[in-house]
Specification:
With about 500 residues, the chain is of the alpha/beta class. The protein has 18 helices and 14 strands. The strands form 4 sheets. A 6-stranded parallel sheet has the order 2-1-3-4-5-6, sandwiched between helices. A 4-stranded parallel sheet has the order 7-8-9-10, sandwiched between helices. The chain has a two-stranded antiparallel sheet with strand order 11-12. α1 (about 15-25) links the parallel β1 (about 5) and β2. α12 packs parallel to α16 and α17 packs across α18 (about 455-475). The protein is globular, with a radius of gyration of 22 Å. It starts with a strand and ends with a strand.
Amino acid sequence: MLRIGFIPLDDRPCTKDFPKRMGRIIGAEIYHPPQEALGKFLTPGSFPALKEWLFSEADKLDYLIVSLDMLAYGGLIASRLPSVPQEEAVRRINVLREIKNRQPKLPILAWNVIMRTSITVYDDLTARYWEEMNRYSVLWAKDQQGLLSAEERATLDHLGQSIPAKVRDAYFAARKRNHAVNLTAVHFVREGVVQQLSLTQEDAHPFGPHRLEQAKLKKHISPKDWLTRLFLYPGADEGGLTLLARAVQEYYHCPVSLRTVFYPLDAANCIAKFEDIPLGENVRLQSLVAGLKASPSADRPALWAGVLGPCESVLGIDVWQRSDDAVGSHIDYKQMWLDAANAREEGYFPALLDVVQPNGSDPALFSSLAGEDLSVLAAYAGWNTAGNTIGTALAHGSVFAVGSQMGILDRTAHLEFLTERILDDFVYQRIVREELADLIQENPQWGSRHHLSPEGWQELNKIVQTKLQAWAHAHLTRYGLPQVKVEASLPWPRIFETSVTCSIDRR
């Protein structure tokens, strides 16, 4: 049985629970540190507890997959603050050297986030600073490159007055420290401490300080490691999932091929909101990270990935003010589904990567697919950024393909995870979340959408459970999916994400 140790980015379901849910599909055991080691929301994880877990578990594992942000700072939110000094952060990740010395044959796969263009939101004030820092950091970087227009200079000066100096200083101090940690991680690959490293670019823009850091990092990456052992692409939360997909294929000696089709075709050339490279390039890079092969072969399973994307790039410094409620009317969904059916007849396992818009599925897709049998899908994802969706769907599809090829597929576990993605990415993120936002407006004692009061968290958890179970009972059979028992809640005291677990009666 495949045994993988997994240190997640934090304790949100997308980073902690998704790997275990995917592992169930092929009977793999995914081990992660205890809850107290991982922290929660604004409380960072505990490095001493993580180190203790590593030394106690390393000799039992076939692979170790590690978020360096968790090791170095205590998680993603902690990575955006300069609380942990640079020297201490580097010392912490050097624990992987000790693990490698003790277990030289243990493959260590790691990912680390290149800091986004803004700060963490945890109340209404930081929500304002989040928007302003996004714009400020983009213009700051353009200024560093001598690219500012007179109008942009005036905007930069205005934002510099509006954003408190302590907010800007903390942001750039964290960036500087994180860049040093990323450089250390690059050297880990060169020295053989880490077998494969992903540097994932969190929420970004075609301009910004991250682009300057990326250029510096690439100077330290040897040509033999670039795109073979070391990768840089837009993403964050899904980084461990693509590494999981690679580990599964390696362990079973079962590489998976990938055929990608974009809807519309030009979507491949569009830059999605929160990203800095074209969508097609992101799919290509994440497929390489996951170990997927571009050329089909008769002796290995193959995925067909339908990528539903935007019809234009989102550019300019006003991107964070644009609505995410665009509709997918530019996509011929009937043709897309026919193409998926044809690919399935040719022996491909079809997967849908829904990145028409960020922060949730495209409602037009599910309107179009009502009455179709979605149980034939190897994977579906449509959550948060394009990078998050791409990595999640490719990983799920890869695990499904390996399980099918090797005769170890637990189809019930697969359908449970597939249904969870639909209830989470479509029903919660596109429908229920905004209903919760309205309820918070009506009940100010519940806090804000960014940080709920204890009462609000308790009340909204009940509502989330009721709404998702009701939707599942009323609608799943319309999509060819079995009835499920749903357990749903808000993992953190905010409404940005939910935790959804589905159970199918196995009798």
